[in-house]
Amino acid sequence: MGDLKLPDIDYGALAPMLILFGAACLGVLVEAVVPRARRHGVQLGLALLSLVAALVVVILERNTRIVTIGGAVAIDGPSIFLQGSILLLGIVSLLLIGERSIEAGGAFVSQAAITVGSQKDLRQAGSSGGATEVYPLTLFSLGGMLLFVAANDLLTMFVALEVLSLPLYLLCALARRRRLLSQEAALKYFLLGSYASAFFLFGVALLYGYSGGVDLASIHAAVADPARSEVLLFGGLALVAIGLLFKSAAAPFHVWTPDVYQGAPTPVTALMAACTKVAAFGALLRVLYVAFDGVRWDFQPVLGAVAVLTMLVGAILAVTQTDMKRLLAYSSIANAGYLLVGVLALNKEGLSGTMFYLVAYGFSVLAAFGIVSLVRDAEGEATHLSRWAGLGRKSPVLAGLFSFLLLAFAGIPLTSGFTAKFAVFGAAVDGGQTWLVIVGVITSMLLAFPYLRVVVLMWLSEPGETTPAVSVPGFLTSAALAIGVIATFALGVVPAPLLDLTNDAANFVR
Amino acid sequence: MEQVEYAQATGLLSSLWLLVAIPLASAAVLLLLGKRADKWGHWLGVLAVAVPFVLGLAMFISLAGLDEEARSAQQSLWDFMVVGQLHVDFGLLFDPLSGVFVLLITGVGSLIHLYAVGYMAHDEGRRKFFAYFNLFVAAMLLLVLGNNYVMLYFGWEGVGVASYLLISFWYTRPSAATAGKKAFLMNRVGDAGLAVGIFLMFTTLGTTQYDAVFSGVGALSGTTILIMGILLLLGAAGKSGQFPLHAWLPDAMEGPTPVSALIHAATMVTAGVYLIARSNPIFSANLTLQTIVVSVGALTLLLGCIIGAAKDDIKRVLAWSTVSQIGYMFLGVGLGGGAYALAIIHLLAHGFFKANMFLGAGSVMHGMHDQVDIRRFGGLRKYMKWTWLTFMMGWLAIIGIPPLSGYFSKEPIIAAAFEREGWTAWLFGLAALLGAGLTAFYMTRLFVLTFHGPARWTDDIHEPHESPYIMTVPLMLLALGSIVAGGLMASPVAHWLEPVLGPEAEDLHAVIPHWLITVLSLVITVLGAGLAWAMFRRGTATAPQPAGVVVTAARKNLYTDAINEAVFERPGIYLTRALVYLDNKGIDGIVNGLAAGVGGGSGRIRRLQTGFVRSYALSMLTGAVLVVGAFLAIQLGWLAS
C-alpha cells in the first residue's frame, strides 16, 4: 500500500464556503443553547456576519485562479464573480427572511411539524414565535450554491446540488400562512427535485463511462478524442443538462416553478428566484463552456429549442395568470429562457452577458418579491391580481416602485432589464444565434402585456372594497427594497462598471 | 474652382450680432411685458428696426472703406451644434451681398413699421403685431447674415413662423386662418427640400459653411450638383412663391397690409432669390440647373401677369404682380454670370416700388372702409392726393418707364435673356418681353380703375379721406425711392456685388441688338398701358362679367389650385383614408387577433399545469426523452452522413 497522497488544499480559495458551512453549524448549536427569546437576533446577526465575511474573503481572493482540492473545485473568474453575486443577493434575501415587523413572528411558522388545523396549530398561529432554524438552513443552501458554481467535477457538483436543494425543500414548507399550500409546494419540489437529481446522477454515470473520469477537464479531453462512444457522451450530456435545467426552471422542466413559488414563504421564493438561479446558471455555464466546449455545434440546437420553448411557455402563460406570485414565477421562467440565450451564445460576451443578467435580474426580483410581501390583509399576503386594483391611489410610492420594477422586467430602457437583455441578445447575435434573439424579442413584447396590465391595474383602476392595506415595511425590508430598486436603476443607467467586471471575470480555468 | 475665404470681423463690424439681437430683444420685451407695453410698444418696435438700420448703414460704409478683395467680415459667436462629424458655428457674415439686404430689410422695414403705427392704430393687438413684426425682422436678418446654410435655415424657418403668425394675425377670420395654414403647409414642402439639400451638402462636402461649400463644390459630380441645386431651388420656390409652390402668396394677403408690404412683397419672398444668388457657385456649376431656374422664372412671371390681369382685389393684383416680378428675379439669377447682380438690383428696386404700392393700397383701403375691390373704387385722385401721386410713381416704376427705377432694373434682365445660347434666347427673351407688356396692362388697369374714371363706390361711402401723415410720409419716401433707386443703384450696385457674384454683365452676343430690345420693351410697355387706359378710362362694371376662356381661366388662377388639389390634395386624402382603413382593419386586426390567440393559447396550455406531481413528473420525463432523443438523433444523423 503506497503513501496516501493528500491533495493540495488552498484554504483561502475555499474560505467563503467554509465560513458559510461553519456558521451554519454554529447556527444549529445556537438553536440548542441560546434561549428562545434571543435566538432570532443572534441567528440573524450570525448569518449576516458570516455572509459579509464570506463576501469580504471573495473580494480579497478576487485575483485567485486555481483548481484546488484535487481538482474538485475551480476558483476562477466566473466562480468568484458568481460567488460574490450569490453572497450579495443572499444578504438581501436574508434581510427579507429576517423581517419580523410586518407580521408578528415573521413569515415562518415556529413548529412546522404540527398538523395543520389542529388545536395546537391554532394556538401556534397566535404566538409571536417563528422558526429560527431558517437561518442555518439558508446558510447551508447558500454554501451549497457557492460550491455548485465552483465545482470542477460532476460528483462535487452533485453533492453541492443536494446541499443547496435539501434546505430549500425545508424552507419551502415553513410558511406561517396557508400552511397546506406551503407543505404541498415543498413536497412537490422535493419529489421533482429528487427526480431531476436522478437524471443528473445517471448522466454523470454515463459520462464516467464515456471518459473514464468525472472531472470536467478529463471530459473535455475525451470529447476531443473521436474514438469514443458518442451515445454515451450525448446521453450523459443530455441527462446532466436536464438536471441543471430543472434547477434553472427551463421548460419543460419548469413545471414545479409556479406551484413552489406560490406556496413557499415569499422571502424564500425571493431567495430561489435570485440566488438559486445564479447557482443553476453558473453550473450550467461551467459544464457547457468547460467540459463540452468541443461539441458546441451539437448541443446548441437542442438547448436552443429548450430556450425557445422556455421563453414561449413563460411569456404565454404569464398572460393569463391571476396570482402575483405565479405571474412572477412565469416571468422567472421566461427570464430563464433569456439567460439560456446568453449561455448559448457560447462566446466570451455570452458568458459575461449572462453573468450580468443574473445579477441585474436577481436584484429586481428580490425587490419585487419584497413588495409582494408588503401587500397584505388579515389573511396574510394578498397575492390575487384583482386585489392590487387601485393600489396606486392608496400607496403611490410602493406602487410606483413596483411599476418601475415591472418596467425593468419588461426591458424598458433606463432600467437594468434593458441593459441585461441587450447584453445577452447582443452576445447571441455575435454568436450566430439570431433565431433565438428573434424569439426573445417577440416573447419580450408578449411579456410586456402582463406587466403593463398590472401597472394599469394599480394606477388606472378604482380601488375596490377589497384592496388590501399595505404594511409599513420594517427596516430590513426597506433596506432590501432600496438596494434592489437602486441596483435596478443604477445598472440601467451606468452599467459600464459591472459590465467591465463581468468581462474581466469571463474566463474559465480547466 | 476658386477658393472662397472670408476675413474676420474687426472694429465696428464685430458688433454684427447686434443687428439680429436688437429686434429679437424688442420682440421678447413686447411679448413678455404684455398689456403693460400697450402704450409705447409700437414705438419700441419702430426703434428696434430703425437702430439696426443706422447701425447697418455704418457697417456698410465701413465695409466700403475696405479693399475690394477684403470686403467681407465673418464672426463666429459660438458652436451651434457639434454632433459627430457635423460642426455648425453660430456664425455671421457681412459682405456686399448681405450688406445690401440688411439695408433693404431695415430701411424699407423702418418705413413700413412707421406706417404700421398709423395703420394699426385702432387695432387692439397692435403691440403683439409689432412684436411679431420685430421677430420677423430679426429672423430675416439672421437669414441674410448667417455664414452657413444651417444659420440660413434657422432664419428661413424663423421668417416662416413670423409670416404664419402675421398672415393669420386676424385669426378670428376663417379666411385669414386658412390662408395662414396654406402658407405654412406649402412652405413646408419647400423647406423640406432645402433641409434635404443641406443634408446632401453635409454628406458630400462634410460642411455647411459657405466658404467651405463654395470652395469644395467644384469637386462634386454634375449629378450631385444638379440634385443639390434642385433641392435648394425647391426651398427657394416655396419661400418666394414660384411655380409650382406659388399658390399661398396671393392668399397671404389676408394679413394686415403692412405685412403684405414688408414680408410678402419687399423682403421675405425675395429670400429665394437671395438663396440662389448666395449659392451662385453651386448654380453656376451646372448648365441644366440654370436652365431649370430660368424656366421656373419665365413660367412664373407669365403666370403671375396673366392671373394678375383678371383679379379685382387690389391686394391680390399686387400679390400676383409680386409673384410675376420675383419670376423676373429668378430669370435673372438663372441666367447666371452678370445677371445675378441684375436680379439683386431688380429685387432692391422692387422692394421700394412694391412696398410703396402696397402701402398705397393700404391707404386707399383705410379711406374706403377696407374695401378691396377695384371695381368699387374710381375717381379717388381728388380725395387722396398724396396716395394718388405716390402710387403713380410706383406704377410708372413697375411698368418700366424711364427714368423711374423699374426701367433700370427690369430692362437689363430682358436684354440678358436674349443673350442666352441658341433658340432659348428667343424663348426666354420673348417671354420676358411679353411679361413687360402684360405688366403694363394689368398695373395700368389697377391704377386707372382705382384713381381715375367715375366713382363706383358702395353706398356707405360719402367722402373718402386721405390718410394721416404718419402713413403718407413713408409713402412719400418710398415713392422717392421708386423714382430714383433704379437709376442711382444700377451700375454702383453691380460693381459693389462683384466680389460675391462675379464680374459685371457685358454686352455679349445678344440675338438682337441691345438698342432694339430697349425700344421694343418700351413700345410694348406703352402699348399695354395704352390699351388698359383705353379700356378702363370710363370705369367698368361693378361686378365681374362673363368673359372668354382665357379670362375665366385667369380668374381661377389658371387652374393651378385645381391642379394642386387634384395632384396632391385628393390623393393625399385618399392615401390617408386608405392608411386609416388599413390600420383599423389590417394592423389592429392582426394585433388584436394575435392578442386573442395568445390569450386563448395561454388559457389552454394553462390546463396542463394540473397541480398533480405525477403529471409534472410525466411532463419532465417527456421532456427528458425528447432532449435525449434529440441529442441522439443529431448524433445518429451525423454518423449516417
Give an account of the 3D structure.
- The complex is a heterodimer of chains A (510) and B (641).
- With 510 residues, chain A is mainly α.
- A 3-stranded antiparallel beta sheet of chain A has the order 4-3-5, with no helix packed on it. Chain A has a two-stranded antiparallel sheet with strand order 1-2.
- Chain B is globular, with a radius of gyration of 30 Å.
- Helix content of chain B is 71%, strand content 3%.
- Chain B has a domain of 235 residues.
- In chain B, strands 1-2 form a two-stranded antiparallel sheet.
- In chain B, a hairpin with a 2-residue loop joins β1 and β2.
- Chains A and B meet through α7, α9, α10 and α12 of A and α23 and α24 of B.
Q: What are the main properties of this structure?
A:
heterodimer; A: 510 residues; mainly alpha; 3-stranded antiparallel sheet; 20 helices; 5 strands; B: 641 residues; 24 helices; 71% helix; 3% strand
Helix count of chain B?
Answer: 24
Distance between the termini of chain B: 68 Å
**Taking all residues together, what is the mean pLDDT of chain B?**
84
- As a percent range, the share of helical residues of chain B equals over 70%
- Discrete helix count of chain A: 20
The Rg value of chain B, from CA coordinates, equals 30 Å
List how many beta strands of chain B DSSP finds: 2
Shape of chain B: globular
Low-confidence stretches of chain A: none
Q: How many structural units, i.e. domains of chain A?
A: 1
Q: Which sequence of SSEs, written as H and E, runs from N to C of chain A? A: HHEEHHHHHHHHHHHHEEHHHHEHH
Q: What's the shape of chain A? A: globular
Low-confidence runs of at least 5 consecutive residues of chain B = none
Topology as H/E string of chain B? HHEEHHHHHHHHHHHHHHHHHHHHHH
| Helix and strand composition category of chain B | mainly alpha
Fraction of helical residues of chain A: over 70%
